[in-house]
Structures are given as C-alpha cells and as structure tokens.
Specification:
By secondary structure, the protein is α/β, with parallel strands linked by helices. The protein folds into two domains: 243 residues, Aspartate Aminotransferase, domain 2; 123 residues, Aspartate Aminotransferase, domain 1 (Alpha-Beta Complex), CATH 3.90.1150. The strands form two sheets. It has a seven-stranded mixed beta sheet with strand order 1-7-6-5-4-2-3, sandwiched between helices. Strands 8-9-12-11-10 form a five-stranded mixed beta sheet, with helices on one face. Helix 8 links the parallel strand 4 and strand 5. It contains 16 helices and twelve strands. The protein binds pyridoxal-5'-phosphate. Pyridoxal-5'-phosphate binds next to helix 5.
C-alpha cells in the first residue's frame, strides 16, 4: 500500500529535492537515513529471505532515489561494469550489438570478449553518425549509446536514435554516467535502459564502486534482477550507504562543478599551449547544438590536447598541485589524466588530457592549470 510519503514523492518532480527526500523509511522511530544493513539472510516469513536475490533496505534506498530521478525503477549493482554485464546478459546467442566507436573502454572490452567467444557480433558507429544509428536500429538486438562520450565528449542525437524503428525485442541502452540523471533522462527520450556508474557523480567522493540500471519495463527489471542474483553482482551495504550519502549532495556538487568547467573550458580554448579543447558547452564544439537541445547542463568533464607530445602532457599531470593526477571522474576533487596512457587507449591523441572538474574554487583551479601548462617541456 502506498504511504502518504510515497504519494508525495511521486508528485515531487524537482530532482534536487528528490535526491534529498527519497530513499527514506519515513515511519516514526526509524532512522532518518537508511543505515548500512549488514545482512545476508533474514528471519523467514516475508518476501525477504536472502539478500543476493531479495535485496536489502540499504540497496533499496539507493534504488529508490535513482529510479525516481530517472523516471523508472532502478537496480543497484556491485560496480558500473556489473550493471553493464547484466544488460549484456539479456542477449541471446548470435545477437547483433551496436556500439559507439569511442566509448568507455570497459564496455568495449566486455563486448569484444563476448564477440571473441562467438556470443554476439559487434558493429561500431561514430557517436554523431545519427543516420548510421537509425539504420542500424532496424536489426540490432542491443544498441549501446554513450552520450556525452568518453573522452571525446561527442553528444549523440538520442531523441532521433531512440525514436528509430527497432525490433520489439531489441534493447536500447544509454550510458548516462557523464551526463548524470540530473542533466539527461534517457528513458524519457525513448531508451529502454539508462545505465550509470555510481562510482562517479553519485558516489562523488572517490571512495566506492557501484552501478545503477534504470528501466520502465517490469519484465526487464525482473530479468536484470535475476541476472544480478545468479551472477552475484550485488552491491555492498557500505557502498550503497555511501552512494546514498553522495546522492544527497549531488545536485549542488554538479551545479558547482559544471559552472567551473564552463569557465575553465573557455579559458583553455584560448590558452596558447592548448591545441584543442573539447567541451559540449563551447559553441565551437561539433555537437554543441544537440547538447543545448538535449542536456540540462554540459557536465564537468573537459578534454583538451596540449601543444606538444605525450611527455609534455605527462609533465602537465606531474605539475598540478590542487588537481589530482588520477583516473576516474565526477568526484569532489578535480582529477586529470592522459587518457592514451591507459592500456587499449593508444588510439587517442597522445597529448589528450581529460580533466574532471571538482568543487574547488575555480580561480584556484585555473591558477593550478595555468601554472602547469605554462612551460611544457622546460623542466
Ligand atoms: C566508470 C565508467 C563505467 C564503469 O563503471 P565502474 O563503476 O568503474 O565499473 C562505465 N561507463 C562510463 C562512461 C564510466 O565512466
């Protein structure tokens, strides 16, 4: 039976309020926030017997928040990749998978390992090849989109691709990690699945791994839950608790980070030691007009090529002091990394740096970047 709070939350449409208000028990005498429930099994007599299949109240608090934010129902996983694997687990033998030519390397790796074992075929298309995607939709079994993409930040025309005719059994999934549920709601655009790594913006503090998959179809939700149960891809109690803690402040963190990212992207694009700056908010960005139409905000990830070689780019990473030289993104601390230094990423421009802008003071961030960029190659 829906409680008074459930009905109220169902009508509450502001995502910043939902992030704070959802995922609570709400009954008198219960903790204001769901504590980490450390339990594998429960006293029998209700539908909750064993957590691997039946979930825990802590996972459900996180699922409740993100499900509402995405306009569907969400399931939490052990990591982003565990969620991705549960989606690929829905494919039958011989399926056709269509992937962006540039997307998260873990997704590429998973798709490639299945292809090598003969489980499915893989076709790759440019993120901005809208005609290619709408044509491929007709006989694909899984269309996997990532927008904005990693690390080139190309924005796919999701409305056009999601509305292209596809087989009734086909799945269209959007990796919403870079955009977040605050800037983009893929299910509203017509996607079947909205995936995100909660390790990034939801967690927001570089201290947990988790993934979330949101859907509207109840059968698909049940199938994903079954996959999570059978593969043991369950989130940790502490991680789920921390992800809820992170979600409470996500709107504020993102607002700050993406405002700073806009400022930094503009300054980087006119910096004499920067050859090219990619940020969907810049009017010079090739998919800026789609970004303006599709995204509520441009996000907080910038990628830019410095003038110079890999060694000069590595030097920038070793010079920054406020910005951390680290991989990953979406956290309170700004991080920078030369992407081509990662295994399997050698095809990227050698001097491409990916900057995830955090919540530090923007002038301090600029001073740090500017100093690090000043004299590449000069010690
Ligand atoms: C990090 C990331 C993933 C994978 O998530 P994990 O939590 O690291 O398993 C998938 N897609 C994108 C775009 C990511 O940034």
């Amino acid at each position: 039976m829906a409680t008074r709070t459930d009905r109220y939350l169902a009508e509450l449409s502001s995502p910043d309020s939902l992030l704070v208000a959802a995922g609570r028990d709400g009954r008198p005498g219960t903790p204001l926030n769901m504590p980490p429930v450390l339990a594998s099994n429960f006293v029998l007599g209700t539908e909750r017997a064993y957590s691997r299949g039946d979930g825990t109240p802590t996972w459900e608090a996180l699922e409740d928040i993100i499900g509402r934010l995405e306009g569907g129902r969400a399931l939490a996983f052990a990591s982003g990749m565990a969620g991705v694997a549960a989606i690929f687990d829905q494919l039958h033998a011989g399926s056709r998978v269509v992937l962006p030519d540039g997307c998260y390397q873990g997704v590429t790796g998973l798709a490639e390992s299945g292809r090598q074992r003969g489980l499915w075929s893989v076709t790759r298309l440019a993120v901005d090849d809208t005609d290619g995607w709408t044509a491929a939709a007709a006989d694909a079994d899984l269309l996997w989109l990532e927008s904005p993409s990693n690390p080139m930040l190309v924005v796919a025309d999701l409305s056009a691709i999601c509305s292209a005719r596809r087989k009734p059994s086909a799945l269209l999934a959007v990796d919403n990690t870079f955009a977040t549920s605050l800037n983009q709601r893929p299910l509203d655009l017509g996607a079947d699945l909205s995936f995100q790594s909660a390790t990034k913006f939801i967690g927001g503090h570089s201290d947990l791994l988790a993934g979330l998959v949101a859907v509207r179809d109840n059968d698909l939700l049940a199938a994903l839950r079954k996959s999570r149960e059978l593969n043991g891809a369950t989130p940790g109690a502490l991680e789920s608790f921390l992800a809820v803690r992170g979600a409470r402040t996500m709107a504020l963190r993102l607002e700050r980070a993406q405002a700073s990212a806009m400022i930094l992207a503009e300054r980087l694009s006119s910096h004499s030691n920067v050859a090219c700056t990619r940020f969907p908010g810049l009017s010079t960005h090739p998919t800026h007009s789609i970004a303006r139409r599709q995204l509520k905000g441009f996000g907080s990830i910038i990628s830019f090529d410095i003038r110079g070689d890999a060694a000069a780019a590595d030097e920038v990473c070793s010079r920054v002091r406020l910005i951390q030289h680290a991989t990953s993104l979406g956290a309170v601390e700004s991080t920078i990394e030369r992407r081509a230094s990662n295994p399997g990423q050698e095809h990227l421009p050698a001097s491409l740096l990916r900057l995830s802008v955090g919540i530090e003071n923007v002038e301090d961030l600029w001073a740090d970047l500017d100093a690090a960029l000043k004299t590449p190659g000069q010690g």
